[in-house]
Automatic annotation (TrEMBL):
The gene is trmD. This is tRNA (guanine-N(1)-)-methyltransferase. It is found in: Cytoplasm. GO terms for biological process: methylation. It catalyses: guanosine(37) in tRNA + S-adenosyl-L-methionine = N(1)-methylguanosine(37) in tRNA + S-adenosyl-L-homocysteine + H(+). Residues 1-223 form the tRNA methyltransferase TRMD/TRM10-type domain.
Length: 225
């Protein structure tokens, strides 16, 4: 699977993709992550990629020309299944969306900045608009890292134990149940006896019941319907 991420602040993405699971996924050749500096496609020698908004108002707007040049160069080399724009007014990211994206092969992600992109970018190139929450960040880079991480970790072969991703919160519409590890007792705090019983069917039933209870308490909206 390949990700091409377009950013005017590419250095912000160095760390998230250089460590832990995402680094190992690239080393295993399960994914490719390419960061493209939008300023290489600037409209002039000064590296300009933004301009004032028509009609006035505070803030700058990312221009269509540099984005068009970058996307056109990428599409000249391969076909893309999705062009995603990270924006606060996009569809809120959830596990179902992540699962759908994980089935694709080539994805472009556009990181917004300033007051966003010229609306014609959204009309002409973007196939999906995604938000990671109802708040505004300085740019789309952190959102792009969140989206990419969420997709990559469920690609077969990325995690050492593939069943781990299938038991994460939201995969079955529920929050994950509580988990414990050694020691079985710590300063008077005990691990539930059922988890020490070795009775796999009863343990699974306990976990299911705990997942439902936790979801009722913390995210009852997930149980609607």
């Amino acid at each position: 699977m390949r990700f091409d991420i377009i950013s005017c602040q590419p250095d912000l993405l160095d760390s998230p993709f250089s460590h832990s699971i995402l680094k190992r996924a690239q080393q295993k050749n399960l994914v490719e992550i390419h960061i493209h500096d939008l300023r290489k496609y600037a409209v002039n020698k000064h590296g300009q990629i933004d301009d004032y908004a028509f009609g006035g108002g505070a803030g700058m707007v990312m221009m269509i020309e540099p984005i068009d040049k970058c996307i056109s160069a990428l599409k000249a080399e391969r076909n893309y299944d999705a062009v995603i724009y990270m924006t606060p007014d996009g569809q809120t990211l959830n596990q179902s969306i992540v699962n759908q994206f994980s089935l694709l092969q080539n994805i472009i992600i556009i990181c917004g900045h300033y007051k966003g992109v010229d609306e014609r970018v959204r009309q002409q190139f973007v196939t999906h608009e995604i938000s990671i929450g109802d708040y505004v960040l300085s740019g789309g880079e952190l959102g792009a890292a969140v989206l990419t991480d969420a997709i990559i970790r469920i690609i077969p072969g990325v995690l050492n134990d593939e069943s781990s991703a299938l038991t994460d919160s939201f995969q079955d519409g529920l929050l994950a149940p509580p988990v414990y590890t050694r020691p079985a007792e710590y300063k008077g705090l005990q691990v539930p006896e059922i988890l020490l019983s070795g009775d796999a069917p009863k343990i699974e039933q306990w976990r299911f019941e705990q997942a439902i209870e936790r979801t009722k308490q913390r995210r009852p909206d997930l149980l609607d319907g």
